[in-house]
Amino acid sequence: MSNLHNINIERSVLSSILFNPMSFEDVAALIGAKDFYLPSHRYIFEAMEACEREDLPIDEEFIKKKLNQQGRFDEDAMLEILSTNPLPATKAYAEEIREKAIKRELVQLTSDIKEIAVDKDLPSAEVVDLVQQKLYQITQESGSKEFRESPEMTHATIEHIHEMKKRGNAGVVGVDTGFTEINRLTSGFGEGDLIIVAARPAMGKTAFCLNLAQNALDRGRGVAIFSLEMPAEQLMLRMLSAKTSIPLQKLKVGDMGDEQWARLSSAADEMSKRKFFVDDNGSVDIHKVRAKLRKLKSQHPEISLAIIDYLQLMNSASNKDRHLEVSEISRGLKLLARELNVPIIALSQLNRGLESRSDKRPMLSDLRESGAIEQDADMILFVYRDDVYKVREEKEKEQKARSEGKEYKSDFFEKPEELAEVIVGKNRNGPVGVANLIFQKACTRFVDGAKNAIPIEVVQYNASIAPEAKISLPPL
């Protein structure tokens, strides 16, 4: 099928590179060796890539030497290329080579669909997922080599080290969390990582993840959130409260002065320009998450963080035992993170059993269905606030006293700011440890330690808040 390849264009592009090696980078940005139809052309382009990596001249002699070492040199093919007139501009022709390569891949895909749907008789959901994955790979120009070779890997590693040297101070490799202590422990969230953020209810795990999302957005990154229990408007309210330092309760009822309205308007305008996407349908399975994220990532390549709130509300679209379902979900999320090359954060509930311990700080064994989650996660973070339990204990004491007809007096007051711990319980590529933060209740916001804390406007949670605990907000 001649419309699926054009040998003359392939020769012309290769000829242009040999006559003008400076054009190689422009061509290599558009196509790879796999996009050439003739094997001899693929081998020559691979040899050009090797010369480029090793800072060798991209010319006939060095290419011939490389190919002879591999037993792949085709003298006739080289002579035909050298006798072909070079092109004045290679971009359009390189794009034509890529276009035909995509068509060949699509033709191959139709054959693969028949094999997996009919011959192997796989379930329809699995067939659709495999087809979507392949289509995403084709549109993203993913490589089809089964193995990455040593020269390419070494080159990529050295480039990565140089990039880290340029960044210098922060030591953040992936997505910056926005929290100094967490960055120190994790070096940021790596591309392709699955991060589990786990806590008992009311600890603030959703607030923490929204803060992570906001920090990424403020650094120009794109963020996608699957919110399975909270509508998008509520998420946005929390984010605007954290961003403006206006208490969430005031935002909910619109109880604000002129200066606060102006601040809210400015923050809302800024947020509207961010690459921020929320799916709040409330019911998704792993197949839908994969399909939606692939589509979103192909339309918006700047997406560099995805959050799922929360894992136990997802289903696997199968009728398996719940432990097997969670295993399928966590493994699917890990594979999806690798495929899209973005970190995926999945929130998770913890077992109720930890509340019977004297020290209620979470451990890996407290994860629900922990085996699969612990195995697949690259990083597991626990959010813990001791004051949550102190407040609960005080309320229980007060309730007990009332039921006995006694008066209960306490000098305990619910503070507007509480110490919080983010415990790094697992870190595949770094140390474990504890990052100490401050949780500002009114704005549902976690911030770095006391010296870096952002002031807030305090609203009283109950009459027992001490007057000295109030903080005034300076003009922004």
Automatic annotation (TrEMBL):
Superkingdom to which the source organism belongs: Bacteria
Enzyme class, UniProt record, top EC level: isomerase
GO BP terms in the entry: DNA replication, synthesis of primer
Signal peptide feature range: none
PANTHER family: REPLICATIVE DNA HELICASE, REPLICATIVE DNA HELICASE DNAB
Function: The main replicative DNA helicase, it participates in initiation and elongation during chromosome replication. Travels ahead of the DNA replisome, separating dsDNA into templates for DNA synthesis. A processive ATP-dependent 5'-3' DNA helicase it has DNA-dependent ATPase activity.
Record-given protein name: Replicative DNA helicase
Species name: Sulfurospirillum barnesii (strain ATCC 700032 / DSM 10660 / SES-3)
Phylogenetic classification of the source organism: Bacteria, Pseudomonadati, Campylobacterota, Epsilonproteobacteria, Campylobacterales
